[in-house]
Queue: 4 jobs
Job 1
Amino acid sequence: MNDNLLEQTIAAIEPADAAVREEARRYIDTLTMPRRALGRLLDLAEELAAMTRNPRFPTARKEIILMAGDHGIVRQGVCPQPSSVTTQMVRNFVHGGGGINVLARVAGAHVTVVDMGVASDLSDLVEAGAVIDCKIAPGTADFSVGPAMSREQAVRALEAGIRVAEQLAPRVDVFATGEMGIGNTSPSSAIVTVLSGKDDPTPFVGRGAGLDPSKLAHKAAVIRRGIECNHPDPADGVDLLAKVGGFEIGGIAGVVLGAAKMRKPVVIDGFISSAGALVAAVLAPASRDYMILGHGSAEPGHVAMARLLGKQPLLDLGMRLGEGTGAALALQLLDAARAIMTEMATFESANVTEEGLK
């Protein structure tokens, strides 16, 4: 297996530019408002300036990459829906009927759907140009009894995400992540459990797509069994992904790495997207500098994920749909941050006194 793309991408990721961040901060201090009066919106503006090396960072061209894949763990009764729903929802997205399609239209964002490991044949959608084919396999294996995938497959998933980001980059100012995959809250709970250094996944296990609360203990037990039988290495992102991850989670991690290499912001959606971001952060800690956590998921494990990433969500609306919906809403805040940096008057240009405003 040729690991060169993954290795080269990781090696090319540099921290965000602190000097440009400071330049943006000094400029913000000249704007016609009391100091830091727009709070975290100004923090976001500084972050975007540092990521892009441009105090007048662009945000108009937004791309939500929705990674889709199925999971063998569903055979253990950890979710109420069958895997066939993944395929049904992918077709819904292609026809513009999903929640992500609606919110992407509001945000002025384009949605690209990628088949990372859907269990059915999507060749008709691929041939029509509606879906990008990066299928590693028709779903992962059941990680409660063995690895979710081979190490080779994990690398392929990561590199597929990098390639998709590179392919789309010429038309993109800002990336965002989304996903679809019945059962994918289980690998996400496993990933945050391992990276939190805990033996018991229970605090990180939620209802996902509507699991009956009486079955949460069973779901936690299945995830615990998977961690115990696979012994994923928290210091090795590829091993972690291979042992308890998902193909779409690997694809998301690859998109994050690719975006970071190209110095483009990437807005992370909720629970599953944050699992991918965590894998990317293990592989390349500097990639955190290019991540923006779009919203706080209602899944209980997401608070720990945000802590591990060192991020504070931009929004907290009690959402848990996934698909990239929270990221789509957050994209509009990036537009607002740019507008402040490019349209707001300075004290000098507006002939407004600064006295008493600082």
Job 2
Amino acid sequence: MLRPTRRVASRAPRTAIATTLAFLTLISGVRAGMAETFAYVGNADSNDISVFKMAESGEMVPVQTAAFSGVEKPGSSTPLAITPDHRVLIAGVRSQPFVAVSFAIDPKTGQLSHIGNGPLADSMANIALDRSGKFLFSASYGGNKVALNPLNANGVAGEPKQVIPTGLNAHAFLPSPDNRFVFATNLGSDQVLAFAFDAATGTLTPSDPPAHKVPEKSGPRHFVFHPNGKFVYLIHELNGDVAAFAYEAKSGAWDEIQRTTALPEGFSGKPWAADIHITPDGRFLYASDRTTNTLTAYKVDATSGKLSTIGSVPTEKQPRGFHIDPSGRYLAAVGELSDIMTVYAIDQSGGALTKLKSYATGKKPNWVEFVNLP
């Protein structure tokens, strides 16, 4: 007769334990979903980085202005890169001595603290990290070269391991999604160079074929891979074209499938296209043009990779850089001639941009990076 009583008695603590575990799981899940979002803006003329904390509403709160230690003269731009583990932010300084300034990112506050400076091979218009976070890629527009620097354990760049001559005006130097290839745009030579990359040894070798040609005087500048790894989108500075390519991961080959424009409808002046980014879910693509001070939006067909234009919106003066936050809900664009960052909401059904608010930055802002912490 005692068995039923024992069963009931045993259920009570089990139920309590199950309830407690469910509660803890819920709490831990809430905490896991409460990553804070921070934006970092590279300011060329003031030689610093503006740090903002972004709220769920897209509101930005300034939290820090981080100056470059050991840098006296401003450069023409300030490219930024963040390590894949979100522990270190690196800024490229384009004044002599050419250095990569490394900052530790505080995982709670997002604030930056200077770690040290490492040498760059030249004045680098673009810097990027490989997918392992162990190597820094950089491209020199005026020096017509690309370079690879190993990162030390503390996140400071070591001496360049490889410096490779390119065609005219190397502008971007970025790895493929699987880290097996690295591609370099040559704006003045109208080509994209391809390198095989050995991440174990940190070695670059020319691919076969070593270059992909684009139309003359188009000026290939920046590019971005679709999150599915099947497509690449390339913006051309001199004619304002946005080209879509099918990407073959095994060989690293680019095959053009479409060409459209980053210019607003009816514009007939001289293009000066700049930046290009895609939402984390791959549904929408955006491009900036500095002559018209506009951002153009596109829908992306997930199957074909092709683009359909949504439309253009006005933005800050000379929008050299912009980026999309990790949630894919907001876009932040900076204007080199306005010293302002403007935040836009991305319509989740159609991709259109709606201006929310503008914020003061340092002087001549040209680069935006987002990160979720921790």
Job 3
Amino acid sequence: MKELPLDQVRTLLAVVDEGTFDAAAAALHVTPSAVSQRVKALEQRTGRVLLQRTKPVRLTESGEVVVRFARQLARLERDARAELGLAAEQGPARVPIAVNADSLATWFLPALTRVPQDPPICFELYREDESHTTALLREGQVMAAVTSSPEPVAGCTVRQLGSARYLAAATPEFAARHVTGDLAADLSAAPTVVFDLRDDLQDAFVRSLTGGRSGAGRIRHMVPASDGFRDAVVAGLGWGLVPEPQAVPLLRAGRLVELAPGRPLDVPLYWQQWKLDSPALSTVAEVVAAAAAEALLPHHP
């Protein structure tokens, strides 16, 4: 295979960003037929199907590779123009990052306030579960991600940040009603608060108590926001694993009790980013790593 024609690569990216061939044609000021021909030519050149022709379109695994390359190419071009003094009209640098809700609610946003703004940097944050943020990296939607995965996405580097600690907690009234004897058996049956359908933390904690025999109970209240999750536990809807920075003040005030003292759940977090010589991305990465070293626990494999 020879080189990838840049007009075809950029056209594929436009189709993905706009969602349809017609919308991409409007954005590129060409006909839908021209867009279709460019994508088809790129697929012939690579010998791979790159798009599923749905509405909106969906990338195949091969398409993800090409789109990631397109976004990296656009970033390199932007940085080169900036160094040549040709990018003033393009506005500030954009750094899209995938990050889990609990990090957003505790240490991550204060970290971003430390990023120097000369030249200015705009953050585009994508909230996703820490075990799924790498999917956005793989698809090329973000340049970096806070993730629980130590396995690098193709074309990315991995940096250890530390471990986020969670405490199993509930209101005193809930604990008195539902946690009365064997902790493992009680939590296997008690109502639980979960973040979303993919939230496995509560199940993982109960499995650690039962030796993998069972997870959390079937009565599950889904609250897809970090502060809302905490508030649901404080309201007595169920028990849940609350980030330590959020749990400690509530424990001290007596509004929550720790269900398993001395048995926290520690989730290792990593920073994955494109292997790209981007000044803006490098600046953000250094600031995030420094803030994580202060906010998170040292990670011990």
Job 4
Amino acid sequence: MVSELTESLAEIGQGAMVARAAEPYAGEAEDGHTHESACLNCGTGLIGSHCHSCGQAAHVHRTLGAFFHDLMHGVFHFEGKIWRTLPMLVRRPGTLTREYIDGKRASFVSPIALFLFCVFLMFAVFHATHDESVKGARAVTDPKELAAAIAGNDKLIADLKARRQQLAAAGKDTDRIDKQIENKETAQEALRDTHDAIAENTSDEQLSDFKPLQKAVAKFRDDPDFAAYKMQNYAYKYSWTLIPISVPFLWLLFPFSRRFHLYDHTVFVTYSLCFMTLLAVVAMLLGAVGAASLEALLFFVPPFHMYAQLKGTYGLARRGALWRTGLLLFFASTALLLFFVALTAQTGS
């Protein structure tokens, strides 16, 4: 448990630092350090707390304490303005998106920086809360292991029956061994049923004419653990592709509009994905603590969030926002399906 928590914190920290790289100076206080007369990076004369030529801070810390302060700040604080961005993303997503598009950006985390951090956070929480269930899947789904278990049970049942005959011939009580034989035969019947069902599903039936997808299905059948690991790994690496996949669908809600452009739709999609990712994190945490009923309620949150973001971002009337929300839910499901199919094909390559 400790190792999983450590790994999760490391992933969150990595996400914060990658996102911070997208906006390296946003939200940092200017404390007025001007201990040097010239910039230590480019040699330009200093006239303030930062070099007006290259942007480096005028004062460079050289203490071990300052080093660890920067480390902790980068990992846990991310950016000071995130505490202004997250509440608006939850309560007023349309206002946040519109103000960022219109140029009011100093107060908010950029959508791509926030998206990177949210993705790292989601996978860190996923690994911390779901790894054990993934590790246990192979024992009941691998046909080779099931066949070996059935063969082993056959031998054990035969040995138990031979032992029973010896006890009966000696006039000894056989109730205990009869119970053992009954339990083993019941378990054997369940194993055979499972093996037959898997054998039927793992026939050479062609599920798709798309060869990479067919290969991926075959890999899932042969080694579900490894295939699931590859799927998670690719989802982690290529999560950003959800943005270009989704933007054309959003454009269809405002075709040939002169007011709204692809940039507007890209900002909208990225902030929306940030919220949905954070919602998934909350759902996983609720599931981990046994609050399944609350976790189920989160299923109804996305439509309301989409409606509020559409209405605020594009200045829509209630009716226009409602029918576009319905279409957007369908488009979002289609984008997720395309993303899943692409990941599955990649897993089979």
